[in-house]
Amino acid sequence: MKRFITLFLFTFIANWAAAQQKIDYDKKLKELGIALITPAKPVANYVKMVRTGNLLYLAGDGPWRADGSYVTGKVGVDLSVEQGYEAAKQTGISIISTLKAELGDLNKVKRIVKVLGIVNCASSFTDQPKVINGFSDLIVAVFGDKGKHARSAVGMSSLPMNTSVEIEVIVEVE
Amino acid sequence: MKRFITLFLFTFIANWAAAQQKIDYDKKLKELGIALITPAKPVANYVKMVRTGNLLYLAGDGPWRADGSYVTGKVGVDLSVEQGYEAAKQTGISIISTLKAELGDLNKVKRIVKVLGIVNCASSFTDQPKVINGFSDLIVAVFGDKGKHARSAVGMSSLPMNTSVEIEVIVEVE
Amino acid sequence: MKRFITLFLFTFIANWAAAQQKIDYDKKLKELGIALITPAKPVANYVKMVRTGNLLYLAGDGPWRADGSYVTGKVGVDLSVEQGYEAAKQTGISIISTLKAELGDLNKVKRIVKVLGIVNCASSFTDQPKVINGFSDLIVAVFGDKGKHARSAVGMSSLPMNTSVEIEVIVEVE
User: Fold this and answer.
1) Phi-psi category of B147—alpha, beta or left, where left has phi over 0 and alpha has psi -120 to 50?
2) pLDDT at residue A1 above 70?
3) DSSP letter for each residue of A90-142
4) Which of A21, A46, A128, C64 has the smallest CB count inside 10 Å?
C-alpha cells in the first residue's frame, strides 16, 4: 500500500512537472504583442502543409494581415528594408497562425528546421538577410532554442500577387 | 485441415482486395490523355533522384516533350499564362515519367509532399500560381488525395537553357 | 580458451577491416588540392545546420574564401561562366568545411541528398548548370558515389551581399 502511494505521488509529480514545461504560447504571443490571424486559404489546387513522418512541409506563405490584405511591392524599390523586415515578420505571424490552426497546440512544435526566405526585390538589392531577419527574430522570440533554424535568404525578381516576401518552412513536430 | 483451408482462403481474399485497391495508372493516364515520355538525362554531374528513408528528392525538372525538345521563354513576355500553364503541365508529365521509370509502379507513390514551382518570368509578372496550377491540377488528377501537396510558387529571372518552368518535388514512397 | 582467442582475432580483424573502409578525407582533400576554411558565422538570427532524424539541413552557403572575403558579382555580367564555376566550387569548399567542423569526421556523411544551386545572374543568362557544376564536380570528386545528389540549378536576380552563388544542401548522416 505504501509502495502504491509512493508510485502514485511520483507519477502525479512527474506529470505536473511535465505540464510545467509546457509553454503558455497564448500568453507568450500576447506579451510579444503578436495577434494571430485566420490563415489564408491556398489560392490553388494545393494544401497548406503535408506531414511525412515527424516533419511538416509548409506551403510558401506571405505577409498576410488580419483583414485579408497583404504587403505588396519590391523591397528596395517600393519598400524600405525596415518595411521589408516588417513584411517578413508578418509572414512569420501567418506561419505561426497556420501551425496553431493545424496543430491545435504550438507545444507540438519540436524544432523549426529549415527556412527558405524569399525577398521580392530589384536585381541590385543585396540586403535580403536584413529583411528575412524580421521572420527569424520573431520565430526565435516565440520558440526560443526550438526556433533556431537553418536558413537561406534569397532575392527573386517577382512573387505571386506582387507579395513582398515569401517564406517556406520545414518543422519537426512531436 | 479445415483451419488451413480457412487461412488459405482468408489470405487469398486479402491479397485480392489489396490488388483491387491498386490503381491502374496506365489506364488512368490514358483516360486523362497523358502520354509519358522517356525522361531526360541529367545535364551534369548529378542524379535524377535520391532516396533517403521513405522520401524521394527529385532533381529540378522542366517542360520536356517526347521528342526531346522543351518549352522555352519567359512567361508574360514570350509566353502567355495559358502557355505557361501548359509548360507546367508538361513538367508534371516529365516528373511522373521519371517516377514511373525509377519506381516501376506508380502505386508506390504514397504522397506528393512538397513542390517548389519556379516560373521563368519578367520582374513585373505576378501570376505564378496560375502557371504552376498546370502542374498541381495534373498531379491531383492523376494521384487524387495522394497528390495534394504543400507548394511554393515563385518567379525567377532566368532558368537553365531558358526553360519556362522548373519544378522540384519531394515524394513519400512505400 | 581457444574459442576466446578465435573470437578475439575475429573481432580484431573485423574492426581492422571496417577501419580500412574509412576514407582518409584529409589525405583525399590534400590530393585534390583543396584547403578547408574556417566556416563563416551566420550573419543573422539563425544557425548553420539543423539535424532532424538522420538528415542535416544546411543553411544557404556562399563562395567564402579562407581570408573571410567572398566572390561577388553577377555571372554573365561581372563574372564569366568559368569564374562562376570557381565560385560554385568555393561554395562547395565552404560547405565541406562546415560539415567537417560540425561532424568532426567526414566519414559520417552517408549521402549528399539534395542540392539547390542558385546563380546570381542577369535575366538573359541560361548556363546555370555549367556554373553549379563547380559544386557538383567537387562534391563527387570528394565523396564519390555518396556525393551523387539530386539537384536544381536556378538563376536569381540578386543574392545577399551580392555573392555570386548560394547553395543549400540536405545531407544524410550516420
Assistant:
1) alpha
2) no
3) HHHHHHHHHHHHHHS-GGGEEEEEEEEEEEEB-TT---HHHHHHHHHHHHHHH
4) A21
Which pLDDT value is given to residue A145?
95
Summarised one tens digit per residue, pLDDT across range A34-93 is 999 998 788 778 899 999 999 999 999 999 999 999 999 999 999 999 999 999 999 999
Question: So what's the pLDDT on residue B15?
Answer: 63
Amino acid at the residue C101: A
A34, A82 contact by CB (below 8 A)? no
> Among residues 65-94 of chain A, which lie with CB inside 8 Å of chain C?
none
Query: CA-to-CA distance for C49 and B20, rounded, in angstroms?
Result: 45
Please give the Cα distance from B170 to C148 (Å, whole number): 17
Residue B3 binned pLDDT confidence (cut-offs 50, 70, 90):
confident
Residues in contact with C172: Cβ distance below 8 Å, sequence separation at least 6, in sequence order: B52, C54, C55, C56, C109, C110, C111, C113
- Residue B11 reports pLDDT greater than 90: no
Q: Distance (Å) from the C-alpha of residue C160 to the closest C-alpha of chain A?
A: 5
CA distance C156 to chain B (A): 6
- H-helix or E-strand spanning residue A147: none
Cell numbers for B104: 516501376
- Are B159 and C55 in contact (CB < 8 Å)? no
Residue with cell 520545414: A170
pLDDT tens figures, B46-71 = 899 999 999 999 999 999 999 999 99
Q: Do B160 and C136 touch (CB under 8 A)?
A: no
Of A136, A137, A155, the CB nearest to C156: A155
Starting at the earlier edge strand, list the strands of the sheet with B109-120.
B49-52, B55-58, B165-173, B109-120, B150-156
Pairing of strands B150-156, B109-120: parallel
Higher pLDDT, B172 or A6: B172
Residue of chain B whose alpha carbon sits nearest to that of C152? B60
Which chain A residues in 99-158 lie under 8 Å from chain B, judged by CB atoms?
116, 118, 122-123, 156-158
Q: What is the total residue count of chain A?
A: 174
The pLDDT assigned to C18 comes to: 60
Q: Is the pLDDT of residue A170 over 70?
A: yes
Residue-level pLDDT at B41: 80
Measured between CB atoms, which of B59, B122, B162 is closest to C150? B59
To which residue does cell 525522361 refer? B39
CB contact (8 A) between residue C160 and residue A114 = no
ipTM (interface predicted TM): 0.87
Q: Specify the DSSP class assigned to residue C117.
A: E
All residues of chain B having their beta carbon less than 8 Å from the beta carbon of residue C125 are 158
